């Protein structure tokens, strides 16, 4: 699940002819795009039968599975990049997923919807209900997003897991901006989505 | 059955081999196929596809002759026969060998030809090819006639169906061949050649793999294929995997399961365009 802006950004972030794993690759749009723009050697993991079929039709390699259980089968540094786009919040064990991603990939690109976005904060404050926004549009009892977090939370878990945040970007519908520092109070309040490039601390 | 089997004439003695036919393996079968494609001067097969025992051959092909295979598609398969698989086969073989008309395999000049034993073996096997749900849906407790016989006739439709499966099978299958072929599957364990390490079987392979399983297949369950996917992942092979939702059991790969067809045609088309083979329909 990735929009055009994110796809362009990811394409700019990765080197040509690298090996890329896209976790939760959906219909394979991003992988196909990266094949065309960066001649990557791509591999997808997708949970839905329909998504897997669409990927196969595009000539992509894809394994039906999910981030929580199927990363353990890959060997260390099997990929140059591992992409996890708007999926971390839907995993059962985000901490394990991050650790595993960094074991099998030299670098990881992770995007997360920011639960610290001001509209989310105001909805809890004034309505006293779980926030629903355009990107988080499903009510709490039906959403797959069971581990939502804020940008600040994400930076905290990176610290806890000894993860280095190399680059940070924010995506606010129509513009992507690179940030000098991963965290700022305003960024955590005003960003709808953030994209991080992370790697293991040496 | 096959090119040469127990029912073929042994030229040295001028009669059927019977139980003097040598035991053969999945690898022997693949080596024979290799001889054929060598003879036909085919450098590389675009796709080696097979279900069940055919899937074992696909795996053997990709492990033994990876450079001769572009895409490998094992369907509802396993890299080795499980204990349960062997157990079912053994029951089938015992049914044949305990048929008084089997005559240690020398039945070729008689009328009966171990028909009863082979028919029972087929009935057992047929149960393993379907799922509980498929049986229930197809037959439930439906009766052949309106009343029970209060005896041991085929009262239930499922009984009559199985009896029919058994008796029609014996018309086209040789009982001794059944023994040999089931044994070839039992003896199959791809890891034997590779120091008990399945990923070594696929080391440095350049084949494009697609593994397909079916949700209701309990004979070659998804977990078996996932073991192969894991081994392939460990060697960083090009691998795809899908589990198709179907209630038709192991037999799904022989039936018109729409999602299965879609997946297969999609993958083949995708692989063909990667290989630079044009599809005429485009």
Based on the model shown, name its key terms.
heterodimer; A: 202 residues; alpha/beta; Rossmann fold; 8-stranded mixed sheet; 8 helices; 8 strands; 35% helix; globular; B: 282 residues; Rna Polymerase Sigma Factor, Chain: A; 4-stranded parallel sheet; 10 helices; 45% helix; 11% strand
Structural category of chain A: alpha/beta
What order do the strands of the largest sheet of chain A run in, or round the barrel if closed? Answer: 3-2-1-4-5-8-6-7
Provide a count of the helices of chain B. 10
The CATH class of chain A is Alpha Beta
Strands ordered across the widest β-sheet of chain B:
3-4-5-6
Q: What shape does the CA trace of chain B take?
A: globular
CATH fold category name of the largest domain in chain B: Rossmann fold
In short, what is this structure?
Chain A is of the alpha/beta class and 202 residues long. Helices cover 35% and strands 26% of the residues of chain A.
Give an overview of the whole structure:
Chain A has 202 residues and is of the alpha/beta class. Chain A has helices at residues 4-13, 29-38, 49-57, 67-70, 94-104, 118-127, 151-160, 185-190; strands at residues 19-23, 41-46, 62-64, 79-85, 105-113, 163-172, 175-179, 193-200. Chain A has an eight-stranded mixed sheet with strand order 3-2-1-4-5-8-6-7, sandwiched between helices. The model of chain A has no long low-confidence stretch (mean pLDDT 93). In chain B, α3 (83-97) packs antiparallel against α4 (115-129). The longest helix of chain B has 18 residues, at 258-275. Helices cover 45% and strands 11% of the residues of chain B. Chain B starts with 8 loop residues before the first strand and ends in a 7-residue tail after the last helix. Chain B has 282 residues and is α/β, with parallel strands linked by helices. A four-stranded parallel sheet of chain B has the order 3-4-5-6, with helices on both faces. In chain B, strands 1-2 form a two-stranded antiparallel sheet. Chains A and B meet through α3 and β3 of A and α9, β6 and α10 of B.
């Amino acid at each position: 699940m990735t929009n055009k802006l994110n796809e362009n950004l990811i394409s700019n972030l990765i080197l040509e002819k690298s090996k890329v794993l896209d976790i939760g690759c959906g219909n394979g749009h991003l992988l196909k795009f990266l094949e065309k723009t960066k001649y990557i050697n791509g591999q997808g993991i997708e949970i839905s039968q329909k998504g897997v079929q669409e990927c196969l039709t595009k000539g992509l390699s894809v394994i039906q599975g999910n981030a929580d259980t199927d990363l353990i089968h890959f060997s260390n540094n099997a990929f140059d990049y591992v992409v996890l786009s708007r999926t971390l919040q839907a995993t059962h064990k985000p901490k394990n997923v991050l650790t595993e991603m960094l074991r099998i990939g030299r670098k990881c690109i992770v995007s997360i919807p920011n639960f610290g976005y001001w509209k989310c904060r105001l909805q809890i404050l004034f309505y006293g209900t779980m926030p629903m926004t355009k990107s988080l549009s499903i009510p709490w009892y039906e959403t797959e997003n069971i581990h939502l977090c804020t940008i600040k939370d994400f930076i905290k878990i990176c610290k806890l897991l000894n993860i280095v945040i190399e680059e940070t970007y924010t995506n606010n519908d129509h513009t992507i901006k690179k940030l000098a520092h991963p965290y700022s109070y305003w960024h955590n309040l005003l960003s709808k989505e953030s994209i991080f490039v992370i790697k293991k601390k040496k | 059955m096959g090119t040469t089997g127990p029912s073929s004439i042994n030229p040295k003695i001028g009669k059927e081999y019977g139980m003097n036919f040598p035991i053969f393996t999945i690898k022997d079968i693949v080596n024979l196929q290799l001889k054929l494609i060598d003879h036909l001067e085919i450098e590389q097969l675009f796709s080696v596809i097979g279900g069940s025992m055919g899937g074992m051959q696909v795996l053997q092909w990709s492990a033994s002759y990876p450079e001769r295979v572009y895409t490998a598609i094992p369907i509802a398969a396993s890299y080795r026969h499980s204990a349960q698989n062997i157990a079912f086969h053994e029951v089938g073989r015992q049914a044949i060998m305990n048929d008084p008309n089997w005559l240690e395999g020398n039945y070729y000049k008689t009328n009966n030809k171990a028909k009863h034993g082979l028919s029972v073996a087929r009935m057992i096997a047929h149960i393993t090819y379907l799922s509980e749900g498929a049986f229930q849906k197809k037959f439930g407790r439906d009766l052949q006639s309106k009343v029970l016989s209060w005896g041991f006739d085929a009262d239930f439709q499922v009984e009559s169906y199985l009896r029919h499966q058994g008796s029609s099978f014996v018309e086209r299958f040789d009982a001794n061949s059944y023994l040999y072929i089931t044994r070839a599957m039992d003896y199959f364990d791809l890891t034997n050649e590779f120091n008990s390490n399945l990923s070594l079987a696929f080391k440095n392979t350049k084949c494009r793999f697609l593994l397909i399983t079916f949700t209701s297949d309990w004979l070659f369950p998804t977990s078996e294929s996932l073991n192969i996917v894991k081994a392939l992942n460990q060697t960083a092979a090009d691998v795809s995997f899908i589990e198709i939702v179907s209630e038709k059991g192991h037999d799904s790969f022989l039936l018109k399961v729409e999602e299965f067809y879609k997946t297969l045609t999609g993958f083949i088309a995708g692989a063909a365009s990667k290989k630079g083979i044009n599809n005429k329909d485009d």
